[in-house]
Amino acid sequence: MEETADGGIEASKNGSFRGTARVHISRLSFDNNTGKRAISKKNINRLHRIFQLEGCLRLDSENDVPVQIEEDILAQALAESRLIDQDLKLLPNDGKPHFLHLPQNYQLECLHGQHRILAGKKYLEEEYVGEEEELWWTVKLYLKGSLSKDACIRIQEQHPNSQPVSDGEIFQKIRYYHKQDNVQAEGKWWARLSDTKQKDVKQLLKMEEFVLVLDELLEIPGLWSTVKLGTLHRFLTLKCDEEMLHFLRHILFVWDKILDRVPRSAIDQLTVANLELRTPMVSRKDSREIYAMMETVQLFPSVSDPAVRQTLLRNLSTISCLIPSMRVFLENLKYLEPCCNVLKGLMNFTQSSTIRQCLFKSYVAPPCLLVETCEGKLQSATATDNKLAAYLQLWIYAMRNFPEMVAVAPKKELGQEKPVVLEPNPKLWIEISKMAVSLGFRTPKALKWGKQNPDESVARAFLLRARPPTKYEFTSITIDMATKQIAKILSMAKQIKAKTRTLRLTLPHGGESRDRRCGRPFENSQIFDQEFLFLPYMSGEDAPNSGEDISSFFVKRNFLRSFFDTSIGVNLSQSNNGESNTATTALEPDDTDLMDVDTVTQHTGNLAATKEMESKIELLQKRVHEIQIEARREIESLLGQLARQQQQSAKQAQAEKECIRRAENAEMAMHEKAGELESQLQQIGRDRLKNDELKLQLETISTQMRNMEQSKQQMQLRLEQAQNRPKGEQQKNNLYNNRETSNEQQKADLVGSMLRVQELELELEKKAEKEELLQSQLNKISFENNQLQSTNAEQQRKYEETQRRYLEKVKKYSEKINESIRLRDEATERSRTLELQSLQDRKEYQEKVNGQLHSLMQQSKEAIERYQILESQSLQDRKEYQEKINDLEAQLRSQIQRSNEACQNFKLQNQALELQAQRNHTPPNPDTESTFQEGAIISKLKAIANRPTTELRRVHFEVFEKQPTSTKVSIPLDEQLVNELSAEVLSANWSIFHPSGSVIPNARMLFKLAKDSAKPNFSIVSKDSVKTFREKQRMIIIKRPNRHDGSDSEVQIRSKKDTRHVKKRRRLGDLKLNEGDPKSNEEGAQDPLPEWVLYWNPEWQKILDDAMKHSPDYVLATTSANSRLTQRSFQTLLPDYGSPNGQGRSGWLDDEIVNAYMQLLVDDASKRGQKAFALNSFFYKKLAESGPKSVERWTKRIKVGDKGILDADAIYIPVNQNNHWTMFVILSKEKCIAYLDSLNGTGIEQVRKIKEWLEFDLGKLWVEKEWTTYSSSPQQKNAKDCGVFAVTSAKMISLQYDPLSYSFANINTIRKKMVVELIKGEILRDEEQL
């Protein structure tokens, strides 16, 4: 049946296909395409770059765009183009399809290729400026109406070169075809989902309320491109249906408020990405960015009407919440989930009900509503919905304390350690249970836990954690007594009163960035906002005053309002003294930051108050200065836009003039052609007159001939009559002679007439031939005249259209200029107003500070008096303290004397040992005590290894007492045993080494490394063997084929002290240690620097100067991998070149330079007969984030032999982490991993990742014991040269030099030489330079 359906689709396509043609690219429309995808600016830019490199290939059949056209419109277009149906299916000799002239204002309905056409239009307008006839694209024509629905879908969805389809777009297609009852098309989209996603989506579609809301959201295409259906399991298991529905409806409400009457389809992916999580009404920073994006058409690109765009901008300015999206919804579920788990712990949860339904079933209304205003304090209040107010307080409590109640931690702050996942705090669970009962939610679990004492629960948990019942035995009476005692001690502690802070929804600077506005809160913001996470601060619908940026509390309040209806009108009751205790949010404007009086009174000196006052005044001055700078920047930005608009106007005017000139030239040529045609027509007229005269003459001769013929006939008739009558012979003869004479005369006249007739006929034939020739010429001239007239009309139409567009643009630019001038005037006026306001605030602040200063002076006098009293009291204390110090000094002197005596005894014992050794002919052993300690440590380690434990995994240690002998010890992987071993080793000043050669500083890191390693092996080294052990660890042997003769040469790179004497043999290219050098053991000997490192050819300077003269976007070089290097990239190599003090340039190499230089090393190795490969700088990042499986396709090209990586001579892997460049050089044949870090990093984690990748790629060929590591590199002395050190060290190894043979002093020369090498496309080796 499926084959039959496919056959029907193909038949429909073939039957409606009419051929291929070229059309103007502006006639292609996607407005009526129901299957079109959201516009992706990223994809358009990708295609545009491809077109710039390869051309747009409009004649390639794969790039043809299928379109639908009505049959009558096609017939009209063929007539206007002077074509027939068959011409559309045949290609002319030039290989280009015929150009089809469509009726005016007619748009072809395209079935796919939206991004291709947008990118092609951008490319063609740049490539063919002013050449309108070149702005065409090739289309495949299908008759509209005869193409079946299924065939249309097949064409739309099965086309090459399309971008990958996201989960959200698949869900859109499933719902669209479900509504259309197209089961076959719907099934094909279902097939694109995995089994797990299909199961989750089907479960979601059973929830009718969600389906209704989601179907409405599907009308906004830009919301779905980032949706991942793999997160649906979190969506389906939360049991917070009411809250999630509220958020989804909130998304619809906000976007409809922005659109007003604009169709929802105007919201594309780019618009959603640029607007989500912004609040233009509250944040002035967001408002400025939105205004700039509207000006540059980054928002709502499909809306071109200026009035509608102005309305959209005005609607955006009224949004006081964070603009939501489907991505934000799914991210916020990660914050809602731990709060859900807290509330689920209060109830006996059933599968069919939600959290709200369970809690509302157990709700018993209390006498009055209680509201928590601060930690542990409840106050009576009123609200429009008491049940909802109580319900919200439980959620807010969970938001405030979830890190200590469920095993979920806040997000990690940048630059800080990852937050620790805390164990559940029983005190908080008891408190929320008590609060739930007091609010009216009487669930069995809440009633049970609410009766417990929180302090006793904490005490019991502490006892059981400190002494686990599995290892220690307690009686129940002992535990109860100890619990009550600890609880009594805990109850004696008084809560510290928190410092009063002002709640701010907006901040003058340093607000929450967009990446921090959704999802679980970050660690610092969670701690900072705990003080204000209470219902009086979180409820209500009041919009805050606008500020520069928003605070983290604003984000949390927006989170609550997105999932819940918080407009419940909470009002706190008044206290007995009549004062209102209503908790209000102090929303101070961020332009002022006045001191609190309570804070000022804490200072006790006039100097402190004066400094505080000066700092506040300085802050106000800075604020005024910032406002002035901001106003100036806005004015400069407006002036820049005005200048750009004027330049565009000038370019447009020049283009219009060119069009007018071309039209005038065409008109003059047309007039000249018309004159020629007129003269030819006149000649034809004259020829026609001559022809008419000849015709008249011919008719006259014909008439004469007819008359002569009639006369002849009459004469014959008379002759016959005469013959019939009897007359005399004489009469007959006479008559006969007369007749003969007359007949001869007539015959002569007739012959003459016949000859003349023949001449006339010949002349008429010539005239007819000439007339036919002239007629054909006339037809040809008439055809050319018609073509010229149609061309002239088309040119005239284009000229009028161009002139109309030009006038519209001039009018638009004039309006923008006027608007810019108005905005500049407004900004200037606003700046003046702010300056005057700041002066007034400064005066008021000065008066307030003077009053506070007076009170501080009075307080300082009182403080001085109190200090004098205290000073007199402290004299006696000082005397007693001095006596105690004297006693301690006497005790210390006695201890020193005893220690001196012990030292003297030890010296005497040592001397006796030396005498005894001399008598026994044995060398003296001053390390007798150390040896004893070493033997004792090994004994302790073995004792730890023999401890009984349930742990099966073991950690292996190789203990070095004296090199080269060692002892192997293996202990269970138990944290307590590892801690004891580490304490014993470190207390004896021994060292623990990782296999990479780095020292492990403490027991915690040792246990973590052992636990994470598949084969944990470490070394324990005594303090006397550390030096020898380090030298052994840093020694590697590198074998490589000779660059010239192919023979093997051995390179030994040892410790830094030994590598000072590695030299290069210029002929053979071999590197060997010079063992016979007398300076090989001298401390401080200089590294042998090859001459070519500092060599600089004067001719290269010209290459350098020419390169840096170009503009930043000028392409200076192209690598063998077709990567283009612009002058902007080369500026990172020469930051100080051509710029005073290197202003604006960091000198930190970018990815293009590093990757290009690595490719240069690969090409150079290939010339020398070696097999080298370079992976780009994104390889390690992908490996570290997603593991070896994710980079499998990256390494497919490293297949140079049967063994893959093991057959390569060298593999270069640049690494960029935390803005720092390092380098891996994998010497596969020598089985060596070189990690080159110019900041002396050990790279333990990086080396581990590379080994994991090698193990994954090599499989059974990987044997970790056979591989060695090397980590020596010259060191940088600044923060920008890391990239140069990384690639230069790799180059040294590639050319068989010691990586330590250059230093920081050579970097400037190396930078310049790298520029020349990249431009010339080759490595400059010593043979070519010296």
Automatic annotation (TrEMBL):
<protein>
    <recommendedName>
        <fullName>Ubiquitin-like protease family profile domain-containing protein</fullName>
    </recommendedName>
</protein>
<feature type="region of interest" description="Disordered">
    <location>
        <begin position="709"/>
        <end position="746"/>
    </location>
</feature>
<dbReference type="GO" id="GO:0006508">
    <property type="term" value="P:proteolysis"/>
</dbReference>
<comment type="similarity">
    <text>Belongs to the peptidase C48 family.</text>
</comment>
<dbReference type="InterPro" id="IPR038765">
    <property type="entry name" value="Papain-like_cys_pep_sf"/>
</dbReference>
<feature type="region of interest" description="Disordered">
    <location>
        <begin position="1041"/>
        <end position="1086"/>
    </location>
</feature>
<feature type="compositionally biased region" description="Basic and acidic residues">
    <location>
        <begin position="1043"/>
        <end position="1056"/>
    </location>
</feature>
<feature type="compositionally biased region" description="Polar residues">
    <location>
        <begin position="731"/>
        <end position="745"/>
    </location>
</feature>
<feature type="compositionally biased region" description="Basic and acidic residues">
    <location>
        <begin position="1068"/>
        <end position="1082"/>
    </location>
</feature>
<keyword id="KW-0788">Thiol protease</keyword>
<feature type="compositionally biased region" description="Basic residues">
    <location>
        <begin position="1057"/>
        <end position="1067"/>
    </location>
</feature>
<dbReference type="InterPro" id="IPR022198">
    <property type="entry name" value="DUF3723"/>
</dbReference>
<dbReference type="GO" id="GO:0016926">
    <property type="term" value="P:protein desumoylation"/>
</dbReference>
<dbReference type="Pfam" id="PF02902">
    <property type="entry name" value="Peptidase_C48"/>
</dbReference>
<keyword id="KW-0378">Hydrolase</keyword>
<feature type="coiled-coil region">
    <location>
        <begin position="610"/>
        <end position="663"/>
    </location>
</feature>
<dbReference type="GO" id="GO:0016929">
    <property type="term" value="F:deSUMOylase activity"/>
</dbReference>
<feature type="coiled-coil region">
    <location>
        <begin position="757"/>
        <end position="916"/>
    </location>
</feature>
<feature type="domain" description="Ubiquitin-like protease family profile">
    <location>
        <begin position="1123"/>
        <end position="1293"/>
    </location>
</feature>
<keyword id="KW-0645">Protease</keyword>
<dbReference type="InterPro" id="IPR003653">
    <property type="entry name" value="Peptidase_C48_C"/>
</dbReference>
<dbReference type="GO" id="GO:0005634">
    <property type="term" value="C:nucleus"/>
</dbReference>
<keyword id="KW-0175">Coiled coil</keyword>
<dbReference type="Pfam" id="PF12520">
    <property type="entry name" value="DUF3723"/>
</dbReference>
<feature type="compositionally biased region" description="Polar residues">
    <location>
        <begin position="709"/>
        <end position="724"/>
    </location>
</feature>
